[in-house]
Amino acid sequence: MIEVSKKCIGCNKCVPVCPFAAINMIDKKAVMNEACTLCGACVQVCPVQAITITREEGASRDLSGYKGVWVYVELSETGDNACASAASKASGHQAANHPKKIKQVTFELLSAGRRLADELGEELCAVLMTEKDHGYEKELGAYGADKVYMVEHDELFEYNTDIFSTVMVSLVTRHKPSVILYGATIQGRDLAPRVASTLYVGLTADCTALAIKDGLLLQSRPAFGGNIMADILAPNSRPQMATVRPNVMKLGEPVHGRSALVVRESAKLDKSLRRVKVLERKIDHGSATVRIENANIIVSGGRGMKTKEKFKQLEELSKLLGGVVGASRAAVDLGFKEKTHQVGQSGTTVSPKLYLSFGISGAVQHIVGMKASDVIVAVNKDPNAPIFNVAKYGIVGDINEIVPKLIEALKKRK
Ligand SMILES: Cc1cc2nc3c(=O)[nH]c(=O)nc-3n(C[C@H](O)[C@H](O)[C@H](O)COP(=O)(O)OP(=O)(O)OC[C@H]3O[C@@H](n4cnc5c(N)ncnc54)[C@H](O)[C@@H]3O)c2cc1C
Questions:
Q1: What are phi and psi of 163, to 5 degrees?
Q2: More confident residue, 129 or 85
Q3: Domain CATH code at residue 327
């Protein structure tokens, strides 16, 4: 319920920020009409705190009308692998010249969402906010979306917290989805909490597994430093919302030609909603070239490599294999490699075709970040090292002998 108290001074500030045209100024007092979604935009701008929103207690709400699994579609100007221009002025709509690409995490979430939607017997929908449609629905359909809610608007030319969360909240209010999944990316980690706080619903960050239990979304994630797995349910609020890191969910096979129904949605957006303006965007070439997130081959080293000098052998090995170097947190803490190379819970989650591990024990916080790799090869002198539990091929031996031999053998083959 939304209420306007006697404190209202009729200043009119709330009227233009309401994305749903739900406020009229009558006798110098703000009056909300039935279009109000309780999004809270007016509460934030009221200079005299005259507007209050009271929400129903979760347990007493009827949640039966909430249906469907939604996936937030993340677009990227550079794609997942590209090293974009070093610095670009983000002052205009220059992105329109190059169609943005759908980030791979979106397809991973659609693959997971398809499974959840089938189990619930509900629709899988993709939510796309864009300045211009470039036929994205074909790819979204191929990865399992039944429907694409498409919002096309000039103000959606680049990601902006206020604008995107306003659109998302209005779509949720209109269509009442049961589940929404976001990538645990810079964008998803910014958008999902804003939507959650506006709708007053829960959000589970960095889920490593999703399932359906008694009709609810079972959200699993490491807790207490990764020492336990927590299973989280949100029985009293909708939508149930989760973020998932890239490379955690297995990518399904696209079914080309499978189409999704496009539902075009309008949005009343105005520049005044945009409280943050991006003046300049800089991409650091140093870290952009690392991109362990999307590498096919990763040669990773841990504390067992002993010194920074010895760690350099892994650079040589990875070059010969056409891969990139990864590191355990211990190796990063010891200064063997920069943080951008760290694999694991507090680093990057990876799923290469080949993951080679040298002198890494296999702590749970490391394993959660690389266990989705297709083939894991581990070298460790300790036969009981936990890394062998996830490795397809294990070599019990000394890395000081094995790494140079591998380098030698690969050089001979070249
Ligand atoms: C909240 C939290 C978040 C964390 N996040 C991460 C994370 O993102 N990524 C991560 O990696 N860790 C993370 N950790 C740390 C994690 O718990 C471990 O401490 C870390 O992964 C250990 O790194 P390591 O395997 O390189 O070192 P160690 O556990 O010390 O293992 C070294 C291994 O090298 C082997 N070895 C030694 N010498 C040789 C040799 N000559 N030949 C062959 N093998 C040899 C040893 O047998 C041993 O198994 C996190 C911890 C916490 C609490």
A1: -65, -50
A2: 129
A3: 3.40.50.1220
